[in-house]
Design a protein that fits this description.
Helices cover about 65% and strands about 0% of the residues. Strand 1 (about 210) and strand 2 form a beta hairpin. The termini are far apart. The protein has one domain (about 85-385). It is built from 15 helices and 2 strands. The chain is mostly helical. It binds iron/sulfur cluster (SF4) (2 copies). It comes from Melghiribacillus thermohalophilus.
């Protein structure tokens, strides 16, 4: 990958050319955002990179891609810049670089976490108990006590959210560095609507270039499967906590219990979404992608897939002797996912959402400026009347 300075300088060069051309106006929020700027600094490039959702439409429309001497390629440029964002804004930065550059980070953490959970079981139980069958209320906690699981996953959850917040604060400070106007509540509402509907992945109705020049909406639907699947599993986990700690009914719950229904729908949704996204990634035109960014994106998708597949296997085989081993493997995958989440592409949703809030703010101010009365039409003030 190019050095940071070369990459940012080349990005500014490309955006200046695009701002003179403006053929891609209306393709996505990036093109409107560059029109609101006369020139670009490094923070603008970081902002634009996280506003791009990597569809490829502008690349296929552009007559100035390689072999043209201008060498314009916004999707590849922004993919490289996003990788820089994930490393620059995380904490500790050295970990971000180490784990971000090693696509095997999740898999090493998965192996270590699984071994640690097995080690805990062997240290606190008779080794033969791993192969025993436990069923009924509280069977998940037969070998690993509930308090231990709560402690480990609360600490990992706080770690993940804490590092995300540190990165979000630094990212926000940079992309807002040249702004004086305050963000209003309505900007947050607009950005949330854009994010929840994946508005720009829809290509304003036609869809985006998922794998080649032909517009399609597959990528948008697969993102919906992953996003809403994640929310359903989160709802399932929260409801399970309510049942366990408020109603004092321990897991596992029956198949038609709301906790299991929500978890199953969410898990299946995420397996469909991640499998489809991986397929689209493999089929994607290599000219649009940066090899390293593509590998780390695929690694993240496979990590999410692994968490969900191990969770579904646990659900299917929870009444058998395989339950203990599957529970340990699933816990290992979730622990690794939480631990590496601040350094993988998962953090993209944090930066993208903040970029959309900044965009909604700019959009509102531009509209207000358009509708503001001109000097000629401006109503006369009391002071003006007085003076005359
Ligand atoms: S990507 Fe190409 S066609 Fe689109 S605005 Fe830039 S220079 Fe023009
Ligand atoms: S690749 Fe798609 S999302 Fe990214 S700048 Fe081009 S048109 Fe916009």
């Amino acid at each position: 990958m190019e050095s940071d300075k070369n990459l940012f300088d080349d990005g500014k060069r490309q955006m200046r050319l695009c701002n003179a051309c403006r053929y891609c106006e209306g393709y996505c929020a990036v093109w409107q955002a560059i029109e609101w700027r006369r020139d670009f600094d490094d923070h603008d490039m970081t902002y634009l990179a996280n506003l791009c959702h990597d569809c490829g439409d502008c690349y296929y429309a552009c007559p100035f891609t390689t072999p043209h001497q201008f060498g314009i390629n916004p999707p590849k440029l922004f993919a490289q810049l996003r990788e820089k964002t994930y490393q620059k804004y995380t904490w500790p930065v050295a970990w971000g670089k180490a784990l971000g550059e090693k696509i095997s980070g999740f898999w090493i953490a998965f192996l270590l976490a699984t071994l640690l959970f097995f080690g805990f079981i062997f240290a606190t139980n008779d080794p033969a108990s791993v192969w025993q069958k436990y069923t009924g209320e509280g069977s998940f906690y037969a070998l690993i006590p509930e308090y231990f699981m709560i402690g480990v996953f609360s600490a990992l959850g706080l770690w993940m959210i804490g590092v995300w917040l540190i990165g979000a604060r630094k990212f926000w400070r940079d992309i807002r560095s040249s702004k004086n106007e305050k963000v209003m509540f309505q900007d947050i509402v607009t950005a949330t609507k854009y994010a929840m509907s994946l508005r720009y992945l829809g290509g304003e109705g036609e869809g985006c270039a998922d794998t080649d020049e032909e517009p399609a909406t597959n990528r948008r639907w697969l993102h919906h499967f992953v996003g809403y699947g994640f929310l359903l599993t989160f709802a399932s986990t929260s409801l399970a906590a309510f049942y366990a700690h408020i109603l004092h009914i321990p897991a596992p719950y029956p198949v038609f219990h709301p906790v299991v229904i929500l978890g199953t729908l969410g898990g299946v949704g995420m397996i469909i979404g991640t499998t489809g996204l991986l397929y689209l990634k493999l089929k994607r035109d290599p000219d649009l992608t940066d090899e390293k960014a593509s590998k780390s994106g695929a690694s993240f998708i496979m990590a999410l897939w692994t968490v969900n597949v191990t969770g579904m296997l646990l659900l299917i085989f929870r009444e058998t002797a395989a339950m203990n081993s599957l529970l340990v493997i699933h816990l290992g995958s979730v622990a690794a996912f939480f631990f590496t989440a601040p350094y993988t592409k998962f953090v993209h949703f944090v930066y993208r959402y903040l970029a959309l809030v900044n965009y909604a703010n700019e959009e509102r101010l531009a509209k207000e400026e358009e509708t503001a009365p001109t000097v000629k039409n401006k109503p006369k003030t009391a002071a003006h009347h007085k003076a005359n």
